[in-house]
Amino acid sequence: SHLHLHCFALPYIPRWKKIKYLSFGPLGGFIEADDLLKKIKPI
After folding, report:
1. Is 0.85 surpassed by the pTM of this model?
2. Which residues are catalytic?
């Protein structure tokens, strides 16, 4: 298994595509990089 990250350039064109890349936290969607690093950081 591996970690696969993508970076997207702003601004989003058309503007409605911005919704596609929003973070929804526990509801699904994408996780913020800071949150991911906190989850995988060894104790």
Report:
1. no
2. 6
